[in-house]
Amino acid sequence: MLHNIFYNYCCNCLSALINCLLGSHNSPVSFHIESIPNQANKPAILLRQAWREGCRVRKKTLANLSKLPPHVVAGFRTVLKGGLAVSDPSDLLRVERSWAHGHVAAVLGTCRSLGLERILHRHPSRCRDLALAAVVARVLAPDSKLATARRLSPATADSSLGALLGLGPVSGNELLAMLDWLLARQRWIETSLANRHLSDATLVLYDVSSSYLEGRHCPLAAFGHNRDGKKGKQQIVFGLLCAADGCPLAVEVFAGNTADPTTVAAQVQRIQKRFGIERIALVGDRGMLTTARLREDLEPAGLDWVSALKNASVRTLLKRPKPAAGQAPEAVQAPFADSGECEHLIRRIVNARSELL
Predict the structure, then answer these.
(1) pLDDT at 98
(2) Please, what are the domains in the chain?
(3) Model pTM?
């Protein structure tokens, strides 16, 4: 505190001295600080006045600044050159807004290195930029479409995402229109992903989930088995196809009252007809790939499958009947030996997961 007071006092004295001297000379006067070498001691730092008399330049020493700290002398030099010297540089700056950038650059750079922009569309467009921004925003800060639009608009942005993509002002209706644009591009996007991540004779993972809805205007909304535990809420059911490494390939939305096994037929047609893959193994849970679906959908299509036994079937297999009186133990038939489910049970038992095994 005392140092700042002393510095301001020196500046005021120097300014007053210069103004006084300027008034005593008619010719132009300049002021500067000179460093005079001294063999015995440190160089002398002098504040000097210079003016011209005819053909000669006169100089006059006004003050000896040798005892002042170096940063104070540097401040005097700045003032004499027409600059502004302050005790704290932060006094000259005022932070009005700051955007987070590091995580945006990381996620956006990853999306571009993966070729996501070209998968969305070959040619640049605002809809493609909005779709890419929505994907990145979903990773960084999942939110509603309206909130995402506000995060992208320059006036209300909290990151550099909108600026990096050159979006400018973004409205919620624009994001909704972008979703319609994506829906029209769904077949192309899914086919591009399948060509990149699927090959013949490979595994495809499939599962179904649901999500409850607010409102009454969705044509697919219906009451069904609610996995969210939201009583009295309508829902939609959606199935997701993934490659063996977990990369999502395709998604399809069904009515909220659709049973999980009934969605398998649509996925079989998608794999064979749209993706053009003849031999593939579909992986699903025991509630998805039921015996009826295996017989009616997968086997006629020639698809392999991986699933597991239900607990009831495992228990039945473990209960081997006791031999009757006078009957040899090897003559007792295993459960389901005469039923049409024998082949499915033998194939399922390899992948069964039960505490009884």
Answers:
(1) 86
(2) 2-90 (no CATH), 102-184 (no CATH), 200-307 (3.30.420)
(3) 0.62
